1,2-phenylacetyl-CoA epoxidase subunit A
Amino acid sequence: EDEAFLAAFQERIDAEMKIEPNDPMPEGYRKTLVRQISQHAHSEVIGMQPEGNWITRAPTLRRKAALLAKVQDEGGHGLYLYSAAETLGVSREEMTDQLLSGAAKYSSIFNYPTLTWGDIGAIGWLVDGAAIMNQIPLCRCSFGPYARAMIRVCKEESFHQRQGYEIMMTLARGSDEQKAMAQDALDRYWWPSLMMFGPSEGSSVHSSQSMAWKIKRFTNDELRDKFINATVPQAEYLGLTVPDPDLKWNEERQSYDHGEIDWDEFWRVVKGDGPCNRERLRNRTRVHEEGAWVREAALAHAEKRRERAEA
Ligand code: FAQ
C-alpha cells in the first residue's frame, strides 16, 4: 500500500464519502471493520442469553410477548451484522469459529447474570440505552453496509429501551419489594453498563485510528459521558439511586463527573473470567452443534437446486 493510495483513501473519508465493499481500501481499515462488526454481531447473539433466561418466567402475557420479540430482534441484528462483515470477505463460518474458540470478543455486559425480573428492566433501560448511545454515531460510519445496518438496529433498540424503562417504572411505583428489586437491578447493572463503552482514552488502542477513518465518531469516554448525562435524570425520575457516591454535576464541563470504574473487573470479564463467560460460550457451542443438521440440510438443498439448474 503506497502513500499515494493511503492519502487518496483518507481524502475520500474526509470528504464524508461512503466506502462500499468493492472499493479499494487499506488492509488495516478492512481488518478493523471485520473485528468490530463481527464482535458486534457476536454481542447481539450472545446477548440473547441473559434475557432469554426470563422468557418462560415473564410476569404477564404482555411482558412475555414484548420480551420474546426483543430477543428475536437481537438475533436479527446479529444476522444483519454478520452479513455486513461478510461483504468484507470473511465467512460466517470463520466468524463463528472465532467466537466459539474464544479468539473473538463480545461485549463484556453479557457475562453478568439475570437474577431477577428487575434485571430485565435494567437491561432494556441501561444496556439498550448504552447500545443506542454507541450506535447512533455508527449510522454515520464511513463503511456503507455497517452504517446502513445501524439505522434499523437503532430504531429497534429504541423500542427495547422504552420497554425496559417501562418495566423499571412499573417496579419503581410498585410495592416496597418491587422498588427494592428495581434498585438492586440498578445497583448491579450500573457499572457494567458504563464498561460497555470500552476502556478510557489511554487504554483504547484502536480509537485514534478508528476516528481518523470515521468508523468511530466519538471516543469511548465521550460516549460514556453522554450516556451518564442522559441516564441520571431518568434514574431520578424513577426515584432510584445511582450507585456512585462520587457522581456530581460539573457546571463547567456541563457534564457529570463520576467515580472510578473498576478496570480490573472490566479486563477480567473481557478476558473470559466474568461471572457467566463459560456458561455463555458453553450454551452457544451446544446450540451450534445441535443446529449442524440444519446447516447440512440447507447445503444439500442448495446443491440439489444447483444440479437441477445445470441439468
Ligand atoms: N467488552 O481500543 P478499544 C448490543 C475490547 S450492544 C468486550 O476501545 P474499539 C445490543 C476491544 O474489542 C454491545 N471487549 O476498541 C444489545 C479491544 O479488543 P480487540 C455491542 C471490549 O473497538 C442490547 C480492546 O478492548 N456493541 O449488543 C469492550 O475501538 C441488549 C480495546 O478497546 C458493539 O459492539 C467491551 N465492553 O472500541 C443486545 C458496538 N470494550 O478487539 C442484546 C460496536 C472494548 O482489539 C441485549 N463496537 N473492548 O481484541 C464499538 O463501538 C467498539 O468496538 C467498542 C470498543 C466501543 C466496543
The pocket of Phenylacetyl coenzyme A is lined by residues 35-36, 39-40, 43-44, 47, 74, 105, 107-108, 123, 127-128, 131, 134, 195-199, 204-207, 210, 216, 220, 270 (CB under 6 Å). The longest strand covers residues 248-250. The mean pLDDT is 97.
